[in-house]
Design brief:
With 296 residues, this protein is of the alpha/beta class. The chain contains twelve helices and eleven strands. The chain starts with a helix and ends with a helix. InterPro entries: ArsR-like_HTH, LysR_HTH_N, LysR_subst-bd, WH-like_DNA-bd_sf, WH_DNA-bd_sf.
């Protein structure tokens, strides 16, 4: 296998010209043509065709392109990981979190636990569950933490998951709100208020179940993909919000949490990782680390 030839195949699909590929690689045009010919000889089928001055992939070329793209991406990821290992002497571990999951995990002293308890170089990434799941599939993310709704939509043979903790849901309001001193609020009274929603598939599924159970529909006036923005809107006194019970003093400043009435929903904070991960012991170690974050 010649990785350069796979790289040329992928670049030809994108650039459509031998001269453009040669310029980007910093080689001469005959060199690219040579590797194109060798690639076809190696796989025993025509991979390229010329139409109106452009190099296009044949059906066989498109099939090989699918695998070549994955191999180049994995190779680049390996280069990044080894570079980090060479520079620091530590493993490089990427944890992907939804914004809600990160708001739950990273309370007041999480950085102390990271700094003192691990010799691993950790990178945190945030994003929607669907995007994080793609990172898990292509191995650019080692472990993700979300609300668990994506688990059943993925082949069980590929992923493993563990519910770390069930977080009760709560209504958030400004400290000046009339309901801020109430131990609970009847669900029917909430329909008179506007809400700001956080765009999170796991949270929305939990709230839909609660609304169906309580036979109530909350009036969503605003939506955002950031917990901090939602709580800022709530702090103004204009809207309410429903979120998992958070503990961060910075996020909760000026706010009151009140439990939802009726059959209280929860947010299933879930860790997910590839079943074929190269170091299962490291995954288990990182799961313990995340549980320690929750215990802070």
């Amino acid at each position: 296998m010649n990785l350069l030839r796979f790289q040329i195949l992928v670049m030809l699909e994108r650039l459509k010209k031998v001269t453009s590929v040669a310029e980007e690689l910093g080689v001469k045009q005959p060199t690219v043509s040579f590797h194109m010919k060798k690639l076809e000889e190696e796989w025993g089928m025509p991979l390229f065709e010329i139409k109106t001055g452009k190099v296009l992939l044949t059906e066989a070329g498109r099939l090989l392109h699918h695998y070549a793209s994955d191999m180049i991406r994995i190779y680049k990821e390996a280069e990044l990981r080894f570079a980090a290992l060479q520079q620091t002497g530590n493993q490089h571990f990427v944890i992907g979190c939804t914004d809600i999951a990160s708001s739950i995990l990273f309370s007041k002293d999480w950085f102390t636990l990271v700094n003192e308890g691990l010799e691993i170089q950790i990178k945190f990434e945030t994003g929607p569950s669907a995007i994080l799941l793609e990172g898990l599939k292509d191995r650019s993310i080692d472990l993700i933490v979300n609300g668990g709704a994506m688990v059943n939509q993925t082949a069980e043979s590929m992923l493993q998951s563990e519910v770390i903790r069930e977080i009760p849901m709560a209504i958030y309001m400004a400290n000046t709100h009339p309901f801020s001193k109430a131990p609970s609020i009847p669900s029917y009274r909430l329909s008179a208020y506007n809400f700001v929603a956080v765009d999170d598939i796991d949270l929305q599924a939990s709230m839909r179940r609660w609304e169906d159970s309580e036979k109530v529909k909350l009036a969503v006036k605003l939506s955002t993909d950031r917990v901090m923005q939602a709580l800022s809107a709530v702090r103004s006194g204009a809207v309410l919000s429903t979120l998992p019970a958070l503990r961060s003093p910075q996020l909760l400043s000026g706010l009151t949490q009140v439990p939802l009435s009726g059959e209280q929903p929860s947010y299933a904070l879930t860790a997910m990782w590839r079943s074929d991960y190269w170091n299962p012991a490291l995954i288990q170690r990182m799961l313990l680390f995340i549980k320690d974050l929750l215990a802070q």
